[in-house]
Amino acid sequence: MAQISQVCADVKIQSSADKFYGFFRHKMHHLPQIFSKKVHSFEFLEGNDFTPGSLMHWTYDIVGPTKTKVKVADVDEENKSITYEAVEGDILSQYTLFRSKFRASDDGENGGAIVNWSFEFEKANDNIPSPEAYLEFVSKISTVLDTYLAVN
């Protein structure tokens, strides 16, 4: 029986948790313009905003060209957290379960925020690597997006 695993990373940013979360809650569709080399396209298939049940189609190149349908599984306004789950596409040939979650929280000591990213996954077989490349990518997105948010 396959095992559900998880990888996580915390990223320190200068933006507030509200501003970072607000981007992913309301403007995430801008990612293809900001990260055009890695995120190629985005469109809503069902729903028209980032609310639970909305279905999106993404094409990206993190570990190779990928097309994936993703649904918004949960939005937690109070905790500034959003959970996404792959429901169809290339990524599910490697992982029978692939769920990503981020949570932004203010860093009271130093200002700015801490963004916690986690990926919950179940490998299709033992030869599939853990999704460390995805974790590295979202960590980089966080720091580049932080710079973008400082001027926008």
Structure write-up:
The chain has 152 residues and is of the alpha+beta class. Helices cover 22% and strands 45% of the residues. It is built from three helices and seven strands; from the N terminus they run βααββββββα. The radius of gyration is 15 Å and the shape is globular. It starts with a strand and ends with a helix. The model has no long low-confidence stretch (mean pLDDT 94). Pfam families: Bet_v_1.
Taken as a percent bin, the fraction of beta residues is: over 45%
- CATH topology assignment: Alpha-D-Glucose-1,6-Bisphosphate, Chain A, domain 4
Biggest sheet, in brief? 7 strands, antiparallel
Query: Strand order, biggest sheet?
Result: 1-7-6-5-4-3-2
The CATH C-level class name: Alpha Beta
Query: Got a strand count?
Result: 7
Low-confidence stretches: none
Mass-distribution shape: globular
Give the overall pLDDT as a whole number.
94
In short:
Belongs to the MLP family. By secondary structure, the protein is of the alpha+beta class.
Pick out its properties.
152 residues; alpha+beta; Alpha-D-Glucose-1,6-Bisphosphate, Chain A, domain 4; globular; MLP-like; MLP-like protein 34; Bet_v_I/MLP
Task: Write the SSE topology.
Elements: E1 4-13, H1 17-26, H2 31-34, E2 39-46, E3 55-61, E4 65-76, E5 81-89, E6 95-106, E7 113-123, H3 132-151
Antiparallel strand pairs: 1-7, 2-3, 3-4, 4-5, 5-6, 6-7
Domain Bet v I/Major latex protein: 2-152
Organism: Cucurbita maxima (Pumpkin)
Family: Belongs to the MLP family.
